[in-house]
Amino acid sequence: MKSGLTRTSTVLFHVQKGYNLQFIKRARQIHLSHQQYAAAPINTGILFVPQQEAWVVERMGKFNQILDPGLNFLIPFIDKIKYVQSLKEIPIAIPHQSAISADNVTLTIDGVLYLRIYDPYKASYGVEDVEYAVTQLAQTTMRSEIGKISLDTVFRERESLNIAIVTAINKASSAWGITCLRYEIRDIQIPKRIQEAMHSQVESERKKRAAILESEGIRTSDINIAEGKKQSRILASEADKLEKINRAEGEAKAIVANAEARATSLIVLAQALSKEEGKNAASLNVAEQYVSAFKQLAKSSNTILLPANASDVSSMVAQAMAVYTNLASKNEKPKLEEYDRGEYISDDEK
């Protein structure tokens, strides 16, 4: 079986030469008949049919039987092998053709059709040339299906387009004894200007996506930086708060400790002063502090205010002891008054 492309090319060649259309049809029928007779085996009486082939036998010009693969017997000169049909899967190249999509874009499409003969009788007597008929049917079906969809759908849904073409071919070719197994679009060509527009659209779409991704990256970066600064400030404030709390607690404990130490020292000092020679020890301590303070004069400032008798240590110690004696007498007087009042009340009660 020759491809439909070869036969179509032959017809187009004769049309270009200016031959009559009826003459072309008759010549084509003679060519096909000659091909069929040349391809058919000679009846020798004993025949061996190859696997996956079906030989259609006519007896005295009328269909008689279909020979199965293996050994077969025929009557010479009466039986004739008219057609030889292959039962294998047959690939047929569908030539380039123009089609217009739903959005008025002219496309040039070619493909490959895979079919199989399941009824040799219908394939032999149902149509003159099965391959040519299927090729023409595939081309017209392809144009019809592409006219229903837009250009973008053609590229996006090639699989569904192939299935639709196969379904349409099987529906129309059921009387020919063949079944279309699958159809594959091999190449789709679009006009150059449409192709350039599509490239520009793809480029602009990619630029748009790149700009969106870049802006999202910048936004995420700014959010992360702000969140980091926020967390850093929160942690710094918490650390400062804990530091102040710890410092305040330390200062409070230090004040308490100093007050307790001062109270203890005063108690010890009071006990020491209450003993014999306690005042002499206090006078010695005052004198030592006076001398120590006198050494620090004129270290922090050049202007100094001094009493008239600054060199008289004994008088300064005497003044300090007089102040102490005065304060001590005032502290003891309320105790004596309370004691006397208690005695007075007790006398009246008696």
What spatial order of strands do you see in the largest sheet?
3-2-5
Radius of gyration: 62 Å
The biggest sheet, with number of strands, parallel, antiparallel or mixed sense and barrel status, is: 3 strands, antiparallel
**Secondary-structure content class:** alpha+beta
Individual helix count: 9
Helix content: 55-70%
Q: State the end-to-end CA separation.
A: 157 Å
Helix/strand order: HHEEEEEEEHHHHEHHH
Tell me which oligomeric state these chains represent. Answer: single chain
Average pLDDT over all residues: 76
Short description:
The chain is of the alpha+beta class and 350 residues long. It has helices at residues 4-17, 21-39, 120-125, 130-146, 151-156, 158-172, 192-273, 278-295, 313-349, and strands at residues 46-49, 53-59, 62-67, 70-73, 79-86, 90-100, 106-117, 178-189.
Blueprint (SSEs and pairs):
Elements: H1 4-17, H2 21-39, E1 46-49, E2 53-59, E3 62-67, E4 70-73, E5 79-86, E6 90-100, E7 106-117, H3 120-125, H4 130-146, H5 151-156, H6 158-172, E8 178-189, H7 192-273, H8 278-295, H9 313-349
Antiparallel strand pairs: 1-4, 2-3, 2-5, 6-7, 7-8
Helix pairs in contact: 1-4, 4-6, 8-9
Describe, in plain words, how this protein is organized in 3D.
The protein has 350 residues and is of the alpha+beta class. The chain is built from 9 helices and 8 strands. The chain has a 3-stranded antiparallel sheet. Strands 6-7-8 form a 3-stranded antiparallel sheet. Strands 1-4 form a two-stranded antiparallel sheet. The chain is rod-shaped and about 170 Å long.
